[in-house]
Design brief:
Elements (H helix, E strand, L loop, with lengths): L2 H8 L2 H8 L7 E5 L2 H10 L2 E7 L2 E6 L1 H4 L4
Antiparallel strand pairs: 1-3, 2-3
Length: 70
């Protein structure tokens, strides 16, 4: 995959994460993502990204560990 495809695949992902995590109110969600998107989330955000199979990933933001959600 070339760099341009990687950039295109993560376009809009920040907005999707903001919507899915309700602006910080939710700290853990299961999302269906591509490998590139999951890697982007793991690299850019303070979040744990755990693969669950069939392109599903559990995303847990670090604040969840501090608030007892783990």
């Amino acid at each position: 995959m070339i760099e341009r495809e990687n950039i295109r695949e993560t376009d809009g992902l920040d907005k999707l994460l903001s919507q899915c995590f309700a602006g910080g109110e939710l700290l853990r969600r299961e999302l269906r993502l591509s490998e590139a998107q999951a890697a982007y989330v793991a690299d850019v955000y303070p979040a744990q990204v755990r693969p669950m199979g069939e392109h599903w990933y559990e995303i847990t933001f670090q604040e969840a560990f501090y608030n007892g959600c783990n």
